[in-house]
Specification:
The protein is of the alpha/beta class. 45% of the residues lie in helices and 19% in strands. The protein has eleven helices and nine strands. An eight-stranded mixed beta barrel has the order 1-2-4-5-6-7-8-9. The longest helix has 21 residues.
């Protein structure tokens, strides 16, 4: 049977899906996919990023750009975000029990971070799964971190105390300098994929070079998102970017497919996992 089309209004809001979101979590319609990340300097497997998807009974798999705003507007991002964190940690622990040792990244909404109980949610996810906190990466948007610096610093302190790593997502050097993030306890800066697309441009390459050198002094890793071809990989390696992710390496997959990816990666690359 063909899937029903999603009806969007002029504002891009999917009116047909709004009410359905309220039932999606309790009826197990959400699931996670994982996109591999690669160490660009050693070609080793570095980890995965957990990404939420919605398998709607009528519309099929719904693009997260369609429903994340709805989750935030309704406040459902809190329980759904907690579910995603718990699920990602549990799956990471499964991989580690198989002998793999790599990072698992989870995207965090500003609404989650704003809750006083958020650090408790993270601690509970780590405790119940027995996942190594040093291998959990929590990703925040730059806007989330910088909107109220003093409050954000207080919110991040208990997360740092847990031993997890923190990343800022979709960073674009043209919008703000890396120095704007220096006061935050950030471990990883993920460059916006739109910026990476211009890596073959000498000016962009120079920006990335300067960014990497600055990051070295801050003890921060630089992560390139949206890598699509081998030329981009070579230029990023030349500029000593640490980690890479994109369709050139792999699209996002459900956990069982990641298992097969790991097996193939180990066989054909000869690199550690």
């Amino acid at each position: 049977m063909a899937k029903k089309p999603v009806n969007s209004d002029a504002n891009g809001e999917d009116q047909d899906l709004t009410n359905d979101l309220a039932l999606a979590l309790e009826t197990d319609q959400f699931f996670l996919v994982y996109q591999p990340t690669i160490d660009l300097q050693t070609d080793a497997f570095a980890g995965v990023e957990a990404l939420i998807r919605w398998r709607h009974p009528d519309h099929g798999v719904v693009n997260p750009l369609t429903f994340i705003a709805g989750l935030e507007a309704s406040g459902q991002i809190i329980p759904v975000g907690r579910w995603a964190l718990n699920t990602a940690c549990a799956q990471g622990a499964v991989w580690h029990a198989k002998g793999y040792r790599f990072a698992v990244s989870v995207n965090i909404s500003y609404m989650q971070l704003d809750r006083a109980e958020f650090a408790d949610d993270v601690a509970a996810a780590l405790s119940s799964s027995r996942f190594d906190p040093a291998l959990l990466v929590l990703e925040f948007s730059q806007r989330t971190l910088t909107r109220d610096a003093e409050t954000t610093l207080r919110q991040l302190a208990p997360l740092v105390a847990l031993g997890v790593r923190l990343a800022v997502d979709d960073f674009a050097p043209g919008d703000s300098p890396l120095a704007d993030l220096e006061r935050f306890p950030i471990d990883i800066v993920k460059l916006d994929k739109g910026f990476i697309a211009g890596i073959t441009n000498a000016e962009v390459a120079a920006q990335i070079h300067n960014l990497v050198q600055r990051a070295r002094t801050m003890k921060v890793q630089i992560f390139a998102s949206g890598i699509e071809d081998e030329e981009q990989v070579k230029r990023l390696q030349l500029e000593e970017v640490d980690i890479g992710q994109g369709f050139f390496f792999s699209t996002p997959h459900e956990a069982v497919e990641i298992d097969r990816f790991l097996e193939d990666f180990a066989i054909f690359s000869g690199k550690p996992l």
